[in-house]
């Protein structure tokens, strides 16, 4: 399909990002499956399958073939694949036309290409007080959700 070449769009998006510290420190390649959380520094490139959270102290590039059941956090995040989970980008996020995001997005700046699919709440807070408030509310919501299974178990016979 013309215009939906995800790898060309991903390369273009990566090259248009700021070039300071652009060395890729972590790569999850195609046909790689990871079950568990990932903590990474620098640039993280994901082209495989992940079931677990990704917390990066730098940029995160999610390739068009990536399939993730993860909450993802990083500075600048480019999404070309499928993410079932929340995304927190402290600087910006770019959602490519090949992307599907099933979860909430919190960022300071967003760019979404025609054809991408987002199912969730999108919060864009460029100012510092709004950003801090959005992060606090997000963390509070996560703590409530993590406690729900404890309260939903029936103790009655």
How would you explain this protein's 3D organization?
- The chain is 23% helix and 39% strand.
- With 157 residues, the chain is an alpha/beta fold.
- The protein has two helices and 16 strands.
- The chain is globular, with a radius of gyration of 16 Å.
- The longest helix has 25 residues, at 128-152.
- The mean pLDDT is 85.
- Strands 1, 3, 4, 6, 7, 9, 11, 13, 14 and 16 form a ten-stranded parallel sheet that branches. The chain has a six-stranded parallel sheet with strand order 2-5-8-10-12-15, with no helix packed on it.
- The chain has one domain.
Put the structure in a nutshell.
The protein is of the alpha/beta class. It has helices spanning 6-16, 128-152; strands at residues 24-28, 33-35, 38-40, 43-46, 49-51, 54-56, 60-62, 67-69, 72-79, 82-84, 87-95, 100-102, 105-107, 110-112, 117-119, 122-124. It has one domain.
Beta-strand percentage? 35-45%
**Helix/strand structural class:** alpha/beta
Q: Give Rg in angstroms.
A: 16 Å
Number of helices: 2
Helix content: 10-25%
Number of separate domains: 1
Give the rounded overall mean pLDDT. Answer: 85
The major sheet is characterized as: 10 strands, parallel
Tally of DSSP β-strands: 16
Low-confidence spans: none
- What is the H-and-E element order? HEEEEEEEEEEEEEEEEH
Shape by Cα distribution: globular
Tell me the span between the first and last alpha carbons: 57 Å
